[in-house]
């Protein structure tokens, strides 16, 4: 199954089908047919919601969706974490709604990072029902007291007892294609390293919707911008502007901060500790290339990599295969390699990662940072977020619809 997933992923990002393997070329007709059915299903769903056959559930607090148009590696979860921190620090505790893929690895990572902040995390496929449960339990804050206040966002610091307990906003993780909940703001993340693939819909390509869906976006964010040549960024910008000329575009990157050792999450290992070592990067995330490129800048002598499909759950046979690669590297360089993984991979199943002994396994902790480009900065992002929400939330009250 992993081999098939990898073959499909390579097809999705291939520009020339003539360069594909015989197995991959044999899959193209089947994937094309499946992609046509997928397009029909998208159109039908759009019609049913647009005509009112399916209704959208509107929550009594502002809902900010963080989504994308392609599978994985777009920086959605780090952006969700950043937004949650902004709301929490402003005195308006947010509720994060996530589906909980692969047993909830992203939810667990968010829980660790936001442990000391007034943030609630709801996990479940029916996110409208999950939101209703949390709001019913904790209550909500009148949106006119939050974003619509004169003091703005995120400078509002007033906290009452009800604000400490109530929910001030909902952040919808991976919400671009989730139509059941009404959103007040749509933020669309774009992976700068692999923005649109071959331009085809799933499963022939990586697109979950046609690029015209960008018309629904209020803000776009090009992620991994530090790893993308300026000329490529301009091409991405041009594609976005062709769909929606007026949309604001921001730029982000993941900045490594430190490592921690698997089995000792409290350990803080400085980035400099990787210098002079042999490294094997192991990951099951949406954009392994961005992860590896980030590690490459930390001074290792040699870096090898093993990539699995996004949300892959490591199995015993995977551990054995990785150990074989480690022994090969040890024999080649005469020193024990260090395994570097992402936090997401750690939180998916930290126990199985202990089976790599005697080799060290370090998880790299990275933070989302804004990249200044053409006058766009983090402060401008926060100010724009406040302005857009003020306009969209004027007149709203804390009454469930």
UniProtKB/TrEMBL annotation:
Q: Does the keyword Lipid biosynthesis apply?
A: yes
Entry EC no(s): 2.7.1.130
Molecular function terms from GO? ATP binding; lipid-A 4'-kinase activity
A GO BP term, please?
Answer: lipid A biosynthetic process
Look up the record and name the pathway of this protein: Glycolipid biosynthesis; lipid IV(A) biosynthesis; lipid IV(A) from (3R)-3-hydroxytetradecanoyl-[acyl-carrier-protein] and UDP-N-acetyl-alpha-D-glucosamine: step 6/6
Keyword line? ATP-binding, Kinase, Lipid A biosynthesis, Lipid biosynthesis, Lipid metabolism, Nucleotide-binding, Transferase
> Quick one: a GO cellular component term?
membrane
Q: Which residues form a coiled coil?
A: none
Q: Which InterPro entries match?
A: LpxK
Q: What is this protein called?
A: tetraacyldisaccharide 4'-kinase
User: Coding gene?
Assistant: LOC116191391
């Amino acid at each position: 199954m992993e081999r098939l997933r990898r073959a499909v992923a390579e097809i999705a990002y291939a520009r020339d089908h003539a360069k594909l393997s015989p197995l991959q070329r044999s899959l193209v007709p089947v994937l094309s047919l499946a992609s046509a059915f997928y397009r029909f299903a998208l159109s039908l769903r759009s019609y049913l919601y647009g005509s009112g056959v399916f209704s959208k559930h509107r929550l009594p607090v502002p809902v900010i969706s963080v989504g994308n148009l392609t599978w994985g590696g777009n920086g959605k979860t780090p952006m969700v974490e950043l937004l949650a921190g902004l709301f929490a620090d402003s005195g308006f505790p947010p509720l994060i709604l996530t589906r909980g893929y692969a047993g909830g690895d992203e939810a667990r990572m968010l829980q660790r990072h936001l442990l000391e902040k007034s943030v609630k995390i709801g996990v479940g496929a029916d996110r409208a029902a999950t939101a209703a449960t949390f709001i019913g339990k904790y209550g909500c804050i009148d949106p006119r007291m939050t974003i619509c206040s004169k003091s703005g966002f995120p400078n509002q610091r007033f906290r009452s007892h009800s604000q400490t307990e109530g929910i001030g906003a909902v952040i919808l993780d991976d919400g671009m294609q989730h139509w059941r909940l009404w959103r007040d703001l749509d933020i669309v993340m774009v992976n700068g390293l692999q923005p649109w693939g071959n331009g085809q819909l799933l499963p022939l390509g990586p697109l979950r919707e046609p690029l015209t869906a960008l018309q629904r976006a209020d803000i776009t964010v090009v992620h991994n911008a530090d790893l993308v040549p300026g000329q490529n960024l301009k091409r991405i910008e041009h594609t976005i502007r062709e769909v929606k000329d007026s949309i604001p575009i921001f730029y982000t990157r993941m900045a490594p901060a430190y490592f921690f050792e698997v089995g000792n999450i409290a350990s803080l290992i400085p980035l400099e500790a990787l210098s002079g070592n042999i490294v094997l990067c192991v990951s099951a995330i949406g954009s392994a290339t961005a992860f590896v490129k980030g590690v490459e800048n930390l001074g290792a002598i040699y870096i090898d990599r093993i990539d699995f499909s996004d949300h892959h759950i490591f199995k015993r046979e995977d551990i054995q295969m990785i150990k074989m690669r480690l022994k090969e590297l040890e024999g080649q360089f005469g020193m024990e390699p260090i395994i570097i993984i992402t936090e997401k991979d750690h939180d998916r199943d930290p126990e199985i990662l202990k089976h790599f002994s005697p080799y060290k396994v370090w998880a790299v902790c990275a933070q989302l940072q804004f990249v200044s480009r053409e006058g766009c900065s983090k402060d401008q992002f926060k100010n724009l977020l406040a302005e857009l929400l003020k306009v969209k939330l004027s007149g709203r009250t804390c009454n469930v619809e």
